[in-house]
Design brief:
The chain is of the alpha/beta class. The protein has three domains: 182 residues, inorganic pyrophosphatase (n-terminal core), CATH 3.90.1640.30; 104 residues, no CATH class; 114 residues, Diaminopimelate Epimerase, Chain A, domain 1. 45% of the residues lie in helices and 15% in strands.
Length: 451
């Protein structure tokens, strides 16, 4: 019988997945440790459903801190169980004891090296761009269908993870696209304005991505604009006629342009939306999952999609709370941005929001010529989130290297993607870190111009 997934991946990838499948079939109980963001939580939904369907017992946990201390401490809480790391792990395995065993990693981030005692399945090792073509949920989905093709109905959560990692920007590509083409034939897809809400008004007031300066978060300003456009604020998006949709789209495009947004952000004004049988669209699903995580309730969507449908209202409420908080935090952070020569930075108002704030500021509000760094100061360590643009990456920017090397020089650790990366440094070393990062980013951004 033909197995579709084996037509999508190469032989080396299939060989690694075979080892992973053998590992999976060997044990009856697993510990799953997933990164706490939208991609990691989407990955967790896929793997927990795989466990449930396969009759495996499991315990799910989330990892926020990917530093040496944070990662190893989380693992050592229950080190004696077979463990699957997803959306993290490739670059963190080196933090675990040398006698560690029974570990499987499903990851897509940059990494330098990994010990041979683990089964480390990373998209980048098979010629796949882990920044734009495959996320953690991609890897979880591929593994699940490799174990059993019947798990192909978990595709919505692969798509939600990819959207959370902005891998849908400009359209899905690479292996993400191939998976959707292969397993999503029956899923309805519509293209339109990237707005989501019960009414036109709410869809703009609560819009995060795109983020509209002076409109996102402002009920009165949005109502005023819609009245000027002769659009009923209480209409649903689907009720808009062609003329109304065109007027709204043109105005919002003008709004983003006036904010100084470049083509990368402008492309997010329109998006494909997939309509799933679970009652959510792809963009709604991604936002709901990500919102629960940012509110510290990652388990809520996992439990819901394992069958506890009483939690739907809780998920929806988490989304509204998240949108309201993040709009407020972005507005406050934007006013507090400080500049170095080659980078810009801010201190995040919210403990879990530095990454989300950095992403919105970079695309829609901040100086487009240099990357932005967000700090979240804790009791002993300061977490860092950094974001750039694809244009900067084309000029030589690699934030994964910046976070990794500059964090290490001040006693911390870091890594991630070229366009978005994070780290953890000892509290009080922020100024030293900024000076190092500013110098390195300057060299990166000028490297191509020299040739």
């Amino acid at each position: 019988m033909s197995i579709p997934i084996k037509k999508i991946i190469n032989e080396d990838f299939a060989a690694s997945l075979t080892k992973g499948k053998e590992f999976f079939e060997k044990f009856d109980y697993f510990r799953i440790l997933a990164h706490y963001d939208g991609d990691g939580t989407s990955s967790a939904i896929i793997l927990t459903n795989l466990m449930k369907r396969s009759g495996k017992k499991f315990h799910l946990g989330f990892i926020k801190e990917l530093s040496a201390d944070g990662f190893s401490k989380r693992y050592l809480e229950e080190k004696n169980f077979p463990t699957i790391f997803v959306d993290c792990g490739s670059d963190q395995l080196k933090f675990l004891p040398e006698d560690t065993e029974n570990v499987l990693v499903l990851d897509h981030h940059f990494y330098s090296s990994a010990p041979d005692w683990a089964i480390n399945i990373n998209a980048r090792d098979y010629g796949i761009d882990g920044t734009r073509e495959a996320c953690g949920a991609t890897m979880a989905f591929i593994f699940s269908v490799f174990v059993n093709e019947d798990n192909s109905d978990l595709l919505p959560f692969m798509i939600s993870g990819a959207i959370a990692d902005k891998q849908d920007m400009g359209g899905f590509r690479g292996i993400n696209s191939k998976l959707i083409e292969t397993y999503g034939k029956g899923i309805e897809r519509r293209r339109g304005l990237n707005l989501h809400g019960d009414t036109v008004k709410d869809s703009i007031v609560f819009s995060l991505d795109p983020f509209f300066k002076d409109l996102s978060g402002s009920n009165s300003n949005v109502v005023s604009v819609l009245h000027d456009l002769n659009i009923d604020p209480e209409k649903s998006l689907i009720e808009l006629n062609e003329s109304e949709r065109k007027r709204l789209g043109l105005y919002l495009a003008y709004k983003l342009s006036a904010q100084g947004c470049q083509s990368e952000a402008m492309s997010y004004l329109e998006a494909d939306d997939y309509y799933f049988e679970n009652g959510f669209t792809s963009n709604e699903l991604s936002l709901i999952i990500d919102a629960s995580g940012k509110n510290g309730e990652n388990a809520i969507p996992v439990e819901y999609f394992l069958g506890n449908y009483t939690l739907k209202n809780t998920m929806i409420e988490n989304k509204k709370i998240y949108q309201t908080r993040l709009i407020d935090y972005v507005t406050r952070a934007y006013k507090s941005i400080e500049n170095e020569k080659n980078i810009q930075f801010f201190y995040a108002p919210g403990s879990e929001m530095a990454g989300a704030i950095s992403g919105i500021l970079m695309l829609y509000l901040a100086d487009q010529s240099r990357p932005i760094i967000g700090f979240n100061a804790g009791d002993s360590f300061t977490l860092i989130s950094s974001r750039g643009t694809r244009k900067m990456v084309e000029r030589g920017l690699n934030l994964s290297i910046v976070m990794k090397e500059c964090s290490a020089k001040v006693g911390g650790s870091g890594g991630g993607h070229d366009i978005a990366a994070g780290g953890s440094i000892p509290k009080g070393t922020e100024r030293q870190f900024l000076e190092l990062a500013d110098e390195m980013v300057g060299k990166q951004l000028s490297s191509i111009e020299k040739f």
